[in-house]
Amino acid sequence: MAFENLQPLSYGISITLFLLGTASIFLRLYTRGFILKTFGWDDVMAIFLLAVNTIQQVILFMFLHHGCGIHTWLLSSEQIHQILKWLFVEEVFYYFTHWVIKQAFLLFYLRLSQRPNFQKMVWITMGLNTAFLIINWLLAFLQCTPFDAIFHPENHPEAHCMNSLVLLIIPSILNIITDVIILVLPIPTVWQLQMSTRRKVGVLAVIGFGAAAVLISGCRIIILYQLHVSSDIAYILGKMVIIASLEIEFAIMAVNLPSVKALWNKMVGGGSSAGSGAMGYSKENRSKGYKLSSFEPGSRTGGSKMHKSRGSFTVSKLERGSESEEELFRQAGIGGQGLGGQIKVTTNVAITSDDKDAVGELERQDGLDAIVRGA
């Protein structure tokens, strides 16, 4: 049986999801700032997202405050007028909220791999995301002539307005397009890694959590169509509050999931912290590994059959390392520097021009593996 009043359900779901999304942001910032010590531009965007998400939640509360979730015929004309005003505000700000979430995701992708093609695709997707935001804003601000007809249609019987279904559906379709691009963008790079299939699936599963937001976006189109055909606008907007909360907060949790997983690994003893000797994503280790200039020079090996040899280098590896570290060390033939009091295994490695590919592969895997460990 349908609820006659959706407000209690809308309040309960929106508040619960908002708290979960906000908590994920704080956990991300704590993990990046104090555990991994790898605070970056994507984390700055996460701070901005915290403010944006709070404003978005206030707008949803204003919807409910003025009567959304209650049947339209039970509301006063003033309440309906206020709902129309806040509907326009939400229309504009909702697009911006999604833009911020996607930019935070894409800034995170920039840390995953230094491969030029991947970086180029990330920047192109950022541009596409921005272009779609501008298109959606133009649709919102130019939907009626004169502009006041959006809020007082009864005062402008001769107003020219776009088809409401177009205004409702096109932004959602553009949103889904960018969501799908962001989901599939890292898949080829991850799948080329020389790691176990199980680990590849684990990396993709963390990224793919955002697919839940895409599915919810598809459900939102159904509610938008109901909003187009129904005269009970206030009641349908009560459903929209629920769907909007689900879509936005799941997307926010997807953005923060890699870092939250790193915190979980530390709590259960399965992850690495900044001082544990984990590779790549602590400042200490990141400055020590994977660059040819950081290796200790040694003597040239005699009688080597390698061509284009540039010399040999002394490389050390901790005996005690994570499975991912050891796997990557084996693939590239190098290891991280040891810490005091730890057993080190030292190897002379001849570096040739052909080894650039191996080092590049290591750097690429370092970034992508960090999804699992909380880049």
Using the coordinates shown, work out and report the CATH topology of the largest domain. Answer: Rhopdopsin 7-helix transmembrane proteins
Output the structural class: mainly alpha
Count of all domains: 2
- The helix content is 55-70%
Mean of all residue-level pLDDT scores: 75
Return the CATH class of the largest domain.
Mainly Alpha
Series of H and E elements: HHHHEEHHHHHHEEHEH
Radius of gyration: 26 Å
Rough shape?
Answer: globular
Instruction: Tell me the distance between the termini.
Output: 46 Å
Strand order of the largest sheet: 3-4-5
Uncertain spans:
271-347, 349-367
CATH architecture of the largest domain: Up-down Bundle
SS field, number of helical segments:
12
| Largest pleated sheet | 3 strands, antiparallel
Percentage beta strand: 5-15%
Keywords: Membrane, Transmembrane, Transmembrane helix
Protein name: Rhodopsin domain-containing protein
Membrane topology: Multi-pass membrane protein
Transmembrane segments: 12-31, 43-64, 92-110, 122-142, 162-191, 203-227, 233-257
Structure commentary:
The structure is a single chain. By secondary structure, the chain is mostly helical. The chain has two domains: 7-268, Rhopdopsin 7-helix transmembrane proteins; 283-373, no CATH class. 64% of the residues lie in helices and 7% in strands. It has twelve helices and five strands. The chain has helices spanning 7-35, 41-65, 77-109, 116-141, 164-184, 187-191, 197-208, 211-229, 233-268, 283-286, 323-332, 355-373; strands at 144-145, 160-161, 296-297, 309-318, 344-352. The strands form two sheets. It has a three-stranded antiparallel beta sheet with strand order 3-4-5, with no helix packed on it. Strands 1-2 form a two-stranded antiparallel ribbon. α11 packs antiparallel against α12 (355-373). The longest helix is centred in the C-terminal third of the chain and has 36 residues, at 233-268. It is globular and about 65 Å long. The chain starts with 6 loop residues before the first helix and ends with a helix. Mean pLDDT is 75; it is low at 271-347 and 349-367.
